[in-house]
């Protein structure tokens, strides 16, 4: 059995793949619904608010995508890191790690299928969720510019590649899935803190996480994402190299 087939089976025959797709699709279907009917839900709960009045603006089309993107880049991101860590922590089970390492000529051949399959699954899940949100937004709130939505999805995929690469690097320099998840999430949480300074934030990979919201809403243009996209691609490549060095180090 090839390592590529092994990774596909690992994803499809365990609950990891199911959890990944279920989370993104769930938020894809619920996001526009929440945006459309949030005011109605608050009215139904009015008796429990003890006279408090909450007025919300009328929902607009990009609110549907905003709900999806917010959940996808929070809860979805955590699930992404957990699923990727389970695949990329080569030595989480020492016996299995030793067995596989003795049967490949290069550790790159062991790492590459796990990287590609993890990234492919995450990208597909995110895209399907975004398409579901786009359709429901059209049905419930109105149409969105197709070019802006597609560009937002593409930039989101670039950001998710960075997330998977971060997880891969963490996995090769820590021990176990839990440690990988903690280090990767901590690294990702630092980005919004540093990005609070606008001059710095417009260069960081985290700027791409909001593209699916800001492009359809007209807050930003596609050209605004050139710099963070270039930085993200370069950083992703660097993180994969760091992961490869870490994986080779354990063979010494």
Bin the strand percentage. under 5%
Summed up, the domain count is: 1
Residue windows where pLDDT falls under 50 for at least 5 positions: none
Taken in chain order, the helices and strands follow as HHHHHHHHHHH
**Biggest β-sheet, characterized?**
none
- What is the arithmetic mean of pLDDT? 84
Total number of beta strands: 0
Based on Cα principal axes, name the global outline: globular
In helices, the fraction of residues equals over 70%
Give the distance, in angstroms, between the N- and C-terminal Cα atoms: 27 Å
Based on CA atoms alone, the radius of gyration comes out at: 20 Å
Q: Structural class given helices, strands, pairing?
A: mainly alpha
Tally the helices: what do you get? 11
Keywords: Membrane, Transmembrane, Transmembrane helix
Transmembrane segments: 68-90, 111-135, 141-165, 177-205, 225-247
Protein name: ABC-2 type transport system permease protein
Task: Quickly list its features.
transmembrane, ABC-2 type transport system permease protein, mainly alpha, about 250 residues, transmembrane helix, membrane
Give the gist of this structure.
This protein has 252 residues and is mostly helical.
What can you tell me about this protein's structure?
The protein is mostly helical. The protein has one domain. The protein is built from 11 helices and no strands. It has helices spanning 3-12, 15-44, 61-72, 75-88, 94-101, 107-140, 146-173, 177-194, 198-201, 211-217, 226-249. The mean pLDDT is 84.
């Amino acid at each position: 059995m090839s390592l590529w087939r092994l990774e596909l089976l690992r994803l499809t025959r365990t609950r990891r793949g199911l959890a990944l797709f279920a989370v993104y699709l769930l938020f894809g279907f619920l996001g526009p619904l929440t945006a459309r009917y949030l005011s109605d839900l608050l009215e139904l709960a009015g008796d429990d608010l003890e006279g408090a009045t909450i007025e919300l603006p009328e929902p607009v089309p990009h609110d549907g995508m905003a709900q999806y993107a917010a959940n996808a880049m929070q809860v979805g991101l955590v699930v992404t890191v957990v699923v990727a860590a389970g695949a990329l922590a080569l030595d989480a089970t020492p016996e299995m790690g030793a067995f596989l390492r003795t049967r490949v000529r290069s550790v790159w051949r062991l790492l590459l299928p796990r990287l590609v399959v993890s990234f492919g699954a995450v990208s597909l899940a995110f895209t399907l969720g975004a398409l579901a949100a786009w359709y429901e937004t059209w049905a419930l709130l109105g149409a969105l510019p197709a070019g802006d939505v597609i560009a937002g999805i593409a930039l989101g995929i670039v950001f998710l590649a960075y997330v998977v690469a971060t997880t891969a690097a963490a996995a090769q320099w820590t021990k176990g899935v839990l440690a990988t998840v903690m280090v990767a999430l901590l690294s990702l949480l630092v980005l919004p803190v540093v990005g609070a300074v606008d001059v710095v934030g417009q260069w960081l990979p985290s700027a791409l996480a909001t593209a699916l919201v800001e492009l359809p809403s007209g807050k930003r243009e596609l050209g605004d994402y050139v710099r963070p996209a270039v930085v993200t691609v370069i950083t992703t490549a660097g993180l994969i190299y760091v992961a490869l060095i870490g994986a080779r180090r354990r063979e010494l």
